Amino acid sequence: MSTILNYAIDREIAVANPLKKVKSLKIDNARERYLSKQEIATLLEHAKLDEQLHIFTLLALTTGARVGAICKITPRDINFDTKTISVLDEKNNERYTAFLGSQELEELLKKRVKKLKIDTPVLKENAANLYDQIKLKAKTLLDKLFNEDDTDTKHKAVVHSLRHTFASHLAINGTPIFTIQKLLNHKDIKMTLRYAKLAPDTGRDSILGLGF
User: Residue 32 region, left (φ>0) first, then alpha (ψ -120 to 50), else beta?
Assistant: First the structure.
């Protein structure tokens, strides 16, 4: 039920989730799928055929923001001088700072915002609902590229896998877990600890330092 209400918030049907503080049963339904560097390159190569989808994919992979948050980014939220983006995290009802870490994305955004009013979503086109439009485009491409022969739902590449990919590669590159928590805007470190197992040589230096 909470998931349905959060979906309604993303679509601007509801403004708040009354079940936010209700504890739910713990179910191991965490998706483990994240894209490899080669898969990322393949995805971006195909996404380039659609500017809207290309910008969304770059934003998702380089900021780790959720789909709903990305769909609400406006020119007002982007600071090209500091290379930062103010992201509205509706799940936690607050804003946090993401970073423009891609030169390609920066150039695409600079070109796109010139055509928009300051409070218009940067991904806005002619669809009635931007969230649904982006989800459908991204899902269709991910299914075509990575899911045709995969029947295991837990390991399928889905739109949320882009956020998972962002965090996973940060961990693989040795980024401290508390930094990853901050970049994902996780309130509970337990949500971020799932990525700790991807850190290179986790514990090896400590073992070697024992000197036995």
Answer: alpha
Q: Measured between alpha carbons, how far is 51 from 58 in angstroms, rounded to an integer?
A: 11
Q: What is the pLDDT of residues 109-121, one digit of tens each?
A: 999 999 999 999 9
Pick from 112, 43, 45: which is nearest to 73 by CA?
A: 112
> Closest Cα partner for 193 from 206, 203, 180?
180
* Cβ-Cβ contacts under 8 Å for 126 (sequence gap 6 or more): none
What distance in Å separates the CA atoms of residue 49 and residue 15, rounded to the nearest whole number? 34
pTM, two decimals, is 0.83
Q: Are the C-beta atoms of residues 9 and 17 closer than 8 Å to each other? A: yes
The answer to whether the CB of 47 falls within 8 A of the CB of 57 is yes
Query: Domain boundaries in the chain?
Result: 34-200
Write out pLDDT tens, residues 182-210: 999 999 999 999 999 998 876 766 676 67
Residues 21, 106: contact at Cβ < 8 Å? no
Fold classified for 34-200? hpI Integrase; Chain A (1.10.443)
